[in-house]
Specification:
Layout lengths: L6 H19 L6 H8 L3 H7 L3 H25 L6 H12 L2 H12 L1 H10 L8 H18 L8 H17 L8 H17 L8
Helix pairs in contact: 1-2, 4-5, 4-6, 4-7, 4-8, 5-8, 5-10, 8-9, 9-10
């Protein structure tokens, strides 16, 4: 990589390389050497733009969390359309896609990374899960206002069940991610009571 490559371009190339390493080799395989080798550049390029490897990982996680926030907006935009279960099934599939699920173990097993994420922003120590929680909670709140789930539904508890259970469902990736049918079955079970008790039961 030429030394004159623009900072933003170099950062993005390194982030993309790290993502590929994560998906292929998992958190244990993600080293500075693996990233620069994957990016096809000298190891010094990474340290030219980041104070150390944990600083690089912090920016990587925050960058991917920002991308996830944009993707999660699709869930919010689906309010009032299709079915609540169908929208949540699609939403969880995005929120717990391959990249988020590869990043979460990285955060879990690197204490310094969690510490730096907490310093970077409130709740940052559990970045990705925080994005998922915010997206699901906002969606459920909007659907409750429309009357598609019960007015007395406990949004916090529903969100915790969907995000926590969804994380466990997608984390068990052997032999692969859950099917759409499996995710739909899970979501339907979690929200069944809130949907059945809604004031407009029987109407779309």
């Amino acid at each position: 990589m030429p030394t004159g490559v623009h900072l933003r371009d170099a950062r993005q190339q390194l982030f993309d390389a790290a993502e590929r390493v994560l998906l292929r080799d998992g958190p244990n395989g993600l080293t500075s050497r693996a990233v620069t080798d994957e990016a096809g550049c000298a190891k010094g390029v990474l340290h030219r733009h980041f104070a150390d490897f944990d600083a690089f990982l912090t920016d990587l996680v925050l960058d991917r969390a920002a991308q996830l926030e944009t993707q999660a907006s699709v869930l919010r935009e689906s309010v009032g359309t299709d079915t609540v279960a169908g929208n949540l099934t699609s939403g969880l599939t995005i929120l717990f896609g391959p990249i988020p699920m590869a990043i979460l173990p990285l955060i879990t097993f690197r204490d310094e990374l969690r510490a730096r994420l907490r310093q970077a922003r409130p709740g940052g120590g559990i970045a990705i899960l925080a994005q998922a929680t915010t997206a699901v909670s906002a969606y459920l709140t909007d659907e409750r206002e429309l009357g598609r789930i019960a007015a007395d539904a406990d949004i916090d508890s529903l969100t915790l069940s969907l995000v926590g259970g969804g994380h466990l469902l997608f984390a068990d990736r052997d032999p692969g991610p859950p099917t759409a049918a499996a995710v739909s079955k899970f979501v339907t079970a979690v929200i069944a009571d809130a949907v059945q008790r809604r004031p407009d039961q029987g109407r779309r």
